[in-house]
Write a sequence for this structure.
């Protein structure tokens, strides 16, 4: 038996029933609320319970000093001195903000994602945090949902690669190091499929979507030894996921043999009453723990009812012991029993945060997350001199919005704005600025509704006059970061306010307009994309946003990002995604007979405005000579797929070579294509390289409706290219012998 198990067995044997229940309690600190404030929030009572050893962890308790104070209450006053976990939403940074996770996914670079998570862990752990409620790995196809910004996009394979990279970035190779923290794969599961894109709404999906689209990133996180999972607010097919034994025990703890602990989302145990799944809080406590929810965030259900349920024999004590053991194991792995104050070091807090090195990590991630969507006549990159640039838009000078939603402890207005970034690279004498439009008025916060400015053209004349007298315009458009994130669903995913009207006025006097699109979701931007010659999708890029954007605009960095989500032509197309089914009447009319009886809209093309995996470069990347080493494989065999990639210049640059498959006939219908591998490669201008992928059964398999991973004999199309729509193809047969 390992030292860890001996220690935990010994400790468990000493614990009273109340102390065991205490470990399942996660209290919110009084510093910050990230959910509805509980009526009975009472700091004094919480402190008393910590001293009595009746609390397992705290969330939103911040700073080395603050966590040390709370830790002292637990360690020095309670009978067994079991240390607390300190959890916080460190999603894409603690003080140094990296790009939002959706932007990191757009880099298609797991090393970028891992570095961002590692940076977040470095700064959070220096401030007493030893557990983050990240990565959020909810696949979603619905940009109406505000939390699209927080996850890896629409694809399960890219989502799995990002999930593993984020987990390994937060946790490192050794969870006991003081610069690593426990990660938390969330929200388990299917929150990204909330009906109508409305937050907290019902989820009702089939098992094929659950197993093939939703679960793979969570399985990747479990395989990467993520320390914890978080369930969620939504129900899945009639069962609130907090009370889902199918998800938390059958799949996660039994089938995947995962040994960490599951924490509820904010009061989601109590919300099972509101869902109509639990009669009262005691019933909710019983249902949640029985289903495998180990820790209770802020509903107090376990604190109030578990001991009585056990004493009365209505709750199996072994389930309680299993939950306690899982929680103690994470504390042990973090090294908290050896030194409970190891994360509470004010000196490290001073020296490790917002350093130049940290900002450099954020800047590298930001430049690699930018996606070039249009560049007619190579308008970009811009020359740095002998050009007068008119910069337009409130978003261009905004130093807060680039920090994104879920920004932890970032100082307000601490980002480098686009305007600052441009001036830093070209000199202020070459730059003019006019605000042109405002997005919001009054105070902004992550808690309360924004006061959006609807139609205000008061700034138009100044902006138009400036545009008329400049060589070229750089116009920042998009959305406020607080239009995205939790509780920020929108029915209209177009551009708010008067920004589009202003663009029309600008184009009337100057055709050379580069639009910089800042958003946390795939906005419906058809009118803009059709009107301007150059368009960069820059998301919300974090602390170094302006520098990264300027480096791309002036060509110091050749953009290499690819879209992790499809961009719809119109909000009414949602959900539109690349790995759709063929249907019985496919989305490309096979008959061209003018009849209407096929899967289409009468008022819009079926295809997205910009497809998944799409992104241009300042260079031209050419694919040729795609080959398979054999046109058939048998079970247990693998073959090579090779393609020649040439950077035809004029710039050095990176390309994301993507490999897709199509399984033409199967026992469960398969998508018209599925991403199964990719490589991001750097080629100097003029260089050609052969890119090689290995194809085996693993590449060709899928989950059946019972969750079995299977590979069925038949014909497959293997595809490769720089986007999900422009692909070279070869046929492959798979035989079972
Ligand atoms: C929020 C979110 C969850 C977060 C938790 C703690 O409601 O749903 O993602 O980790 O509460 O802040």
């Amino acid at each position: 038996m390992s030292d860890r198990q001996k220690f935990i067995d010994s400790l468990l044997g000493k614990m009273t029933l109340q102390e065991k229940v205490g470990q399942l309690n996660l209290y919110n600190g009084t510093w910050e609320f990230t959910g509805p404030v509980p009526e009975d929030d009472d700091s004094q009572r919480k402190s008393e319970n910590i001293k009595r050893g009746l609390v397992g962890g705290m969330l939103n308790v911040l700073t080395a000093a603050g966590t040390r104070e709370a830790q002292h209450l637990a360690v020095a006053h309670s009978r067994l001195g079991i240390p607390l976990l300190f959890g916080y939403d460190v999603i894409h940074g603690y003080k140094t903000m990296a790009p939002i996770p959706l932007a990191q996914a757009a880099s298609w670079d797991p090393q970028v994602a891992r570095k961002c998570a590692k940076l977040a862990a470095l700064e959070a752990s220096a401030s007493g945090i030893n557990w983050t409620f990240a990565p959020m790995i909810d696949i979603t196809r619905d940009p109406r949902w505000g939390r699209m910004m927080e996850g890896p996009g629409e694809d399960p394979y890219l989502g799995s690669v990002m999930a593993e990279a984020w987990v390994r970035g937060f946790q490192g190779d050794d969870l006991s190091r003081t610069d690593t923290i426990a990660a938390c794969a969330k929200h388990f599961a299917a929150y990204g499929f909330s009906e109508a894109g409305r937050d907290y709404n019902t989820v009702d999906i089939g098992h094929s979507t659950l197993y093939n689209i939703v679960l793979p990133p969570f399985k990747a996180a479990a395989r990467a030894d993520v320390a914890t999972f978080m369930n969620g607010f939504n129900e899945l097919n009639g069962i609130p996921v907090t009370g889902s034994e199918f998800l938390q025990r059958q799949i996660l703890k039994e089938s995947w043999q995962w040994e960490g602990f599951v924490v509820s989302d904010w009061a989601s145990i109590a919300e099972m009453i509101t869902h109509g799944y639990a009669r009262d809080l005691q019933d909710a406590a019983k249902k949640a723990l029985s289903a495998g929810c180990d820790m209770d965030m802020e509903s107090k259900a376990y604190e109030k009812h578990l001991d009585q349920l056990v004493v009365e024999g209505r709750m199996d004590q072994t389930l309680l012991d299993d939950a306690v053991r899982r929680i103690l194991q994470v504390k042990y792995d973090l090294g908290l029993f050896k030194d409970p104050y190891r994360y509470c070091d004010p000196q490290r807090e001073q020296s490790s945060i917002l350093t130049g090195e940290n900002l450099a990590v954020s800047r590298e991630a930001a430049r690699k997350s930018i996606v070039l969507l249009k560049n007619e006549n190579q308008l970009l990159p811009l020359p740095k001199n002998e050009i007068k640039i008119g910069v337009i838009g409130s978003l261009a000078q905004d130093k807060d919005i680039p920090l994104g939603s879920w920004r932890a402890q970032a100082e307000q207005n601490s980002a480098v704005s686009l305007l600052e970034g441009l001036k830093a690279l070209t000199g202020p004498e070459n730059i003019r600025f006019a605000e042109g439009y405002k997005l919001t008025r009054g105070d902004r916060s992550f808690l309360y509704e924004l006061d959006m400015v609807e139609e205000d053209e008061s700034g138009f004349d100044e902006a138009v006059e400036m545009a008329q007298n400049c060589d070229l315009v750089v116009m920042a458009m998009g959305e406020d970061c607080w239009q995205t994130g939790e509780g920020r669903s929108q029915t209209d995913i177009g551009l708010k306010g008067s920004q589009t009207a202003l663009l029309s006025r600008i184009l009337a006097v100057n055709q050379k307009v580069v639009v910089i699109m800042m958003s946390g979701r795939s906005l419906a931007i058809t009118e803009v994309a059709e009107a301007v010659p150059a368009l960069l999708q820059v998301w919300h890029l974090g602390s170094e946003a302006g520098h990264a954007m300027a480096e791309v605009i002036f060509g110091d960095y050749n953009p290499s990002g690819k879209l992790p989500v499809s961009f719809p032509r119109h909000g009414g197309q949602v959900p539109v995604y690349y790995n759709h089914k063929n249907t019985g009447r496919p989305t490309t009319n096979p008959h061209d007979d003018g009849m209407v009886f096929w899967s289409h809209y009468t008022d819009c093309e079926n295809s997205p405005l910009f497809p998944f995996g799409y992104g241009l470069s300042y260079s031209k990347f050419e694919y040729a000579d795609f080959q398979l080493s054999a046109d058939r494989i048998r079970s247990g065999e693998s073959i090579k797929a090779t393609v020649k990639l040439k950077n035809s210049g004029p710039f050095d640059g990176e390309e994301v070579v993507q490999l897709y498959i199509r399984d033409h006939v199967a026992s469960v219908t398969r998508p018209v294509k599925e991403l199964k591998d990719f490589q991001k490669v750097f080629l100097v201008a003029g260089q050609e390289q052969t890119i090689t992928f290995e194809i085996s059964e693993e590449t060709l398999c899928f989950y059946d409706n019972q969750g079995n991973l299977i590979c069925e004999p038949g014909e497959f199309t293997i595809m490769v290219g720089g986007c999900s729509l422009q692909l070279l193809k070869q046929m492959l047969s798979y035989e079972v012998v």
